TrEMBL record:
Residues 1-33 form the signal peptide. Keywords: Signal. The keyword Signal applies. It comes from Marinobacter litoralis. It comes from the Bacteria. This is Lysozyme inhibitor LprI N-terminal domain-containing protein.
Length: 372
């Protein structure tokens, strides 16, 4: 063999070794990126308000609401743990003919601003099942692929600065991320990779900026979130509008009766018909009948509030399920402000245990998905 052949053989061997080393490093970096530490976080990030129109199918009304939230992410015994809390504002209500007939608006859809509602009515409106989609990393848009969605729990009254009542969630890896494009959850290995990257991004964000909640504060330094879905109970508005319409019709009836009584003298002393009095009298009679008909229609349409709409916010909190290892009373005591998510997850450190093998079976463990 010539010296050239010897050198060529050595070069090829070195090249193979280098390629093997490079391949090993690349494969290690991919695996390392998806490695979930036994414990990490919690990391809390604030999100700017998102606006959504929510329809109440039971009343036929709809409302435009604004939701602002915070998300806390972490890992306990190698499992994902997260908590989100939120507050909301009611911006307007569309009540169709009820809103239009009450004279609250001139719009065909019967829309009017929330400022026209009495405080007692506003307090009784409940927003629930608020699913919020969060970005996985800074600058990454919230789209239909690999969605991270958190239910915000029991929302407080509209306009309150207090966050929602919620407990930590810890779903199985195979149930952590949803993909609308494939219409199924992401594979556990994919979920771990996504969550590991998400943890790193949220840790950096939490260190850089831990904005406190403020409706009036600037959103420039907050990430954006997207309210994916929500439910609203507008029976308090419907009941109030029914009362308003009833009072208006009753007032119109009494006024018409008074005018008709004052206009009963239709013939003057000379026996001539007083045209002005006659016109006033006939108009009053027409308005009285119109008001009586309106009252009859309202009585016929008398609303019956369904039992589900009578459940108070306080009762929802009492019935709210806690699936974590910490006792409900301890978590509820921590569930009082915008830092509740971090405190609750720190409390779980002392009691969390790994899920029993195999990991992806039924999952009736200390940290289990929260369903309601």
């Amino acid at each position: 063999m010539t010296m050239y052949g010897v050198y060529l053989g050595r070069f090829l061997k070195i090249k193979r070794v280098l390629f093997m080393a490079l391949g090993y490093c690349l494969s290690f970096s991919v695996v390392h990126a998806a490695v979930i530490p036994p414990t990490a976080g919690p990391h809390t990030v604030s999100f700017s308000a998102d606006q959504i129109t929510v329809k109440d199918d039971t009343t036929g009304y709809s409302a435009v609401v604004q939701v602002e939230s915070r998300l806390t992410l972490g890992v306990l015994v190698g499992e994902p743990v997260y908590t989100c809390v939120a507050a909301w504002k009611l911006l307007s209500v569309a009540a169709g003919d009820d809103g239009f007939d009450a004279g609250l608006t001139g719009a065909a859809e019967g829309s009017f601003g929330a400022g026209k509602l009495p405080p007692s009515v506003l307090r009784d409106i409940t927003l629930s099942d608020v699913d919020i989609a969060y970005p996985l990393a800074p600058g990454l848009p919230i789209n239909s692929s690999s969605l991270f969605v958190c239910d915000a729990g029991i929302m407080r009254a509209a306009g309150s600065d207090k966050p929602s009542f919620n407990f930590p969630s810890s779903p199985l890896w195979r149930e952590l991320f949803w993909n609308d494009l494939t219409n199924r959850h992401e594979h556990p290995d994919t979920a771990k990779k996504l969550y590991a990257d998400m943890l790193a991004a949220y840790e950096t964000r939490a260190i850089q900026n831990s904005n406190a909640f403020s409706w009036s504060g600037s959103h420039a330094n907050k990430w954006g979130s997207s309210v994916r879905s929500a439910s609203i109970n507008l029976w308090a508005v419907k009941s109030w509008l029914h009362t308003v319409l009833q009072e208006q019709a009753e007032t119109a009836r009494r006024k018409a009766e008074a005018v008709a009584k004052e206009s009963e003298v239709l013939v003057d002393q000379r026996g001539a018909v007083n045209n002005d009095s006659f016109d006033t009298f006939m108009t009053a009679v027409y308005k009285k009948e119109e008001a009586k008909q309106a009252l009859a229609n309202l009585e016929h349409r008398k609303i019956k509030v369904p039992d589900s709409a009578r459940v108070s916010r306080e009762q929802m909190m009492v019935d709210f399920r806690n699936s974590s290892c910490a006792d409900r009373a301890s978590l509820a005591a921590l569930n009082r402000d915008w830092d509740a998510g971090s405190r609750m997850q720190q409390t779980l450190v002392g009691c969390a245990t790994p899920r029993s093998a195999p990991v992806y079976n039924q999952g009736t463990l200390k940290l289990t998905p929260r369903k309601y």
